[in-house]
Amino acid sequence: MDGLADQGVKLRNYYVQPICTPTRTQLMTGRYQIHTGMQHSIIWPLMPSCLPLDEVTVAQKLKEAGYSTHLVGKWHLGLYKRACWPTRRGFDTFFGILLGSGGHLSHKRGEDLDFREQEELARNYTGIYSTHLYAERAQRIIRQHDQNKPFFLFLSFQAVHEPLEVPESYIKPYWRIKNMDRRKYAGMTTCMDEAIGNVTRTLEEKGIRDNTVIIFSTDNGGKVGKGANNWPLRGEKATLWEGGIHGIGFVNSPLLHPSVLRTSNYEMIHVSDWFPTMVEGLAGGSLNGTRPLDGFNMWDTISKGQKSPRTEILHNIDRILSVPVNRTSRMEPHNYTFNSNMRAAIRVGDWKLITGLPGPGDWHPTPDSGIPKKSSIHRNGQNIWLFNIRDDPNEYMDKSLERVDIVERLMERLQHHYTNSVPVFFPPNDPRGDPKRFGHVWTNWE
Q1: pLDDT by residue (tens digit) across 101-148?
Q2: 360 CB neighbour count, 10 Å cutoff
Q3: Quick one: which of 282, 285, 306, 309 has its CA closest to 295?
Q4: Cis peptide before 360 (omega within 30 of 0)
Q5: What count of other Cβ atoms lies within 10 Å of the Cβ of residue 364?
Q6: Is 198 exposed, middle or buried (0-12, 13-18, 19+ CB in 10 A)?
């Protein structure tokens, strides 16, 4: 990965969402989660929810542009009805899991199987490590691909998501790391790195590397306590601090202009931008037929170093996860009036405003670094923070009391976005989805 990043363009001002389902909804639709009802949490296994069926996916638009489309790995955008499955959302082929996590060797969540080839259960891969399986399937797709037709391959590794599992041979080189979770995490990363190298070599062997764009993106910030580390950024996965949302990303391709090769791009880019970038910027397709996009075509920004058309990023507004000012505050109707008790964050230019309950805001060095953990310090009862991310990327210096003018301006932007949002869709678990009813298999129940 380092080699691909070093030879391509590193995205230094790139943002994703703090958890996986929201990141994936925005990748697939090019639309903020406040516009799809996916503002709150993830899609849990028994939840009758999925990426709204009236949303057009990037895979569908690329198919319209003449591409074959493939998903290998993790879906996590709903399974309760087959209409939600990737093969019904624009992907010609699917090989992987429908849920958000599971055993890397058993391919089960709990005692229940979650592994599909197309729409059929795939029972013959028990004991084969998921990263190896996904890389091998991606290589097969590339080898069998008709070179007269373009293709889109969404290779969505489970690594480095928990459970922390990896063959012992990948752990041994890291015996000096004392923390066992960190050691396993390093081994999982190395295995994924090897897999990406194998897939890249297969592109070269097929003779299509010169006409291929490789885009790498993380799903969310790392989960501290499960081997990950976001130091020196503040916070972690599931938080609105930079450690939860400032993503790792790069683009590698011979199609990049020579002037941007081996450079870092500091323009503001968000995961929702991949939809128009791939459909319009790379495939030359049409964006007609989609709902209003929040993403921008960043191909000229990435490939030629031009200025980003994006001036702000709405990280999220979650009305459900808010400061409980009274017993019914979380149950109030969606009345389109934003207040600072709501969990929200927005970036406008260099300024970032956070409100409500952003999540744990500590700074966590690596376990073996010897650097002491730094705990967050804030005003008692505080629910507004303001940072200049260019000057203070690690969010040490809250400016909310000094720059009230900026706070007011960004609060107006949050009100604007909230006015144009849709209600949260977060239904309760449905017992009809219990996998025991289907022979210990995760599947649709409607």
Answers
A1: 999 999 999 999 999 999 999 999 999 999 999 999 999 999 999 999
A2: 16
A3: 309
A4: no
A5: 23
A6: middle
- Measure the CA–CA gap between 36 and 426, rounded to whole angstroms: 11
The CA distance from 421 to 343, in Å, is: 14
Residue 406 · residue 363 · CB < 8 Å: no
Q: What is the DSSP letter of 50?
A: -
Q: Is the CA virtual torsion 261, 265, 267, 269 positive or negative?
A: positive
Over residues 156-176, the mean pLDDT reads 97
pLDDT tens-digit readout, 420-442? 999 999 999 999 999 999 999 99
Residue-wise pLDDT tens digits, 331-370: 456 778 999 999 999 999 999 999 999 999 999 998 888 8
To which residue do tokens 């929200």 refer? Answer: 344
CA distance 422 to 39: 9
Cα R_g (the chain), whole angstroms:
22
Nearest Cα to Cα of residue 240 among 10, 13, 16: 16
Q: Does residue 316 sit in helix, strand or coil? A: strand
Q: Which residue numbers are catalytic?
A: 20, 76
pLDDT of residue 350: 98
CA angle (342, 348, 350) in 5-degree steps:
120
Which two tokens mark 310?
Answer: 């994006």
Please indicate, yes or no, whether the overall pTM of this predicted structure exceeds 0.90: yes
Amino acid in the structure at residue 109: R
Beta strand extents in 93-208 (DSSP E only): 93-97, 108-109, 112-113, 116-117, 120-121, 151-156
Please give the torsion angle defined by the CA atoms of residues 11, 14, 395 and 417, in that order, rounded to the nearest 10 degrees.
160
Burial 369-407 (b: 16+ CB within 10 A, else e): eeeeebebeeeeeebbbbbbbeebbbbeebbbeeeeebb
Angle at 373 between CA 370 and CA 375, to 5 degrees: 165
Fill in the DSSP letter of residue 409: H
Contact of 102 with 108, CB cutoff 8 Å: yes
